[in-house]
């Protein structure tokens, strides 16, 4: 949640730290921009990178100074069970087909969407949305991710054996929302000019709630499927896959024709969201850790060995 909150703050601070504002007209005339303007853009980008490096350094120092290895007592009964060692856990994850179905169903749309949302100033130029407004759209979308994650965690805590169904519902909703957005961008759906900004806010926040709000559910399902692999290793692989899909999205910009015409970006998000439900339908749920917790509640006389 802290990561998404930080991403939201970045949407607000980056335009002011960089001091640069690129309009749709500048993009159209990118081959005739003055050297002074290009120099300002380069300086602005460097300022953003330096600011990010400073924040990362402070965070690293805080971890070095104090980061507890584990809680003083096991938080649950399943945490007292022995976990596989690192290499055995890696082998187990690589051979777990249902885990990979979940991994791709989660990270393909999530990694793509979270690579797409920072570029919303580029995405919405055709709709007349300026860079500052796009930054606020990104900020509210990321903050809604934090709120959505907390809410969904509370809801799923009361219906733990319905996680797959919840993810299918959220994935379907995100597909519909992004499909509406791309239809508006392509002018298949008419929206009055004075209402465009409000519609963009509503659709982006709704998509972020559905896609990023489901993150705790996917991590919980991943740990259930991978048990007895250590949760830290399972979540690390999920995070790595997420970053890889996001990086692949950015690598598409190395193709000159696609970098010049960015209409494909939202279509990619729609396509990746469309893959979520089919992949989850083939995935078989397991509740190994939850079964241990339930057995403990039904047998109060059993003691926990640590």
From TrEMBL:
The lineage of its organism: Eukaryota, Metazoa, Spiralia, Lophotrochozoa, Bryozoa. The keyword Transmembrane helix applies. Keywords: Membrane, Transmembrane, Transmembrane helix. GO terms for molecular function: transmembrane transporter activity. Gene3D superfamilies: MFS general substrate transporter like domains. The chain crosses the membrane at residues 48-67, 99-117, 137-156, 168-190, 196-219, 240-258, 264-283. It is a multi-pass membrane protein. This is DIRC2. The keyword Iron does not apply. It holds the Pfam family MFS_1. InterPro entries: FLVCR1-2_SLC49-like, MFS, MFS_trans_sf. GO terms for cellular component: membrane. It is found in: Membrane. Its main location: membrane.
């Amino acid at each position: 949640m802290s990561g998404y909150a930080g991403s939201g703050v970045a949407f607000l601070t980056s335009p002011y730290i960089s001091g640069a504002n690129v309009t749709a007209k500048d993009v159209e005339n990118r081959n005739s921009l003055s050297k002074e303007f290009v120099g300002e853009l380069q300086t602005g980008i460097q300022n953003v990178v330096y600011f990010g490096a400073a924040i990362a350094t402070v965070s690293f120092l805080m971890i070095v100074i104090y980061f507890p290895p584990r809680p003083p007592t096991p938080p649950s009964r399943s945490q007292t069970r022995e976990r596989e060692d690192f290499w055995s856990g890696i082998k187990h994850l690589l051979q777990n087909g249902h885990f990979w179905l979940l991994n791709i169903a989660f990270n393909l749309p999530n990694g793509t969407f979270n690579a797409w949302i920072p570029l919303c100033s580029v995405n919405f130029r055709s709709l007349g949305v300026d860079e500052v407004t796009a930054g606020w759209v990104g900020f509210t979308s990321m903050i809604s991710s934090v709120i959505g994650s907390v809410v969904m965690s509370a809801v799923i805590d009361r219906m733990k054996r319905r996680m797959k169904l919840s993810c299918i519902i959220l994935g379907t909703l995100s597909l519909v929302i992004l499909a509406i957005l791309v239809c508006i961008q392509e002018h298949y759906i008419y929206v009055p000019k004075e209402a465009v900004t409000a519609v963009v806010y509503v659709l982006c926040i709704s998509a972020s709630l559905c896609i990023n709000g489901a993150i705790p559910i996917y991590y919980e399902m991943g740990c259930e499927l991978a048990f007895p692999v250590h949760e830290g290793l399972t979540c690390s692989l999920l995070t790595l896959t997420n970053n890889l899909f996001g990086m692949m999205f950015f690598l598409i910009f190395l193709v000159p024709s696609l970098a010049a015409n960015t209409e494909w970006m939202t279509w990619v998000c729609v396509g990746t969201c469309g893959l979520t439900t089919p992949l989850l339908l083939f995935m078989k749920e397991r509740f190994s850790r939850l079964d241990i917790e339930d057995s403990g509640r039904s047998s109060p006389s059993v003691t926990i060995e640590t």
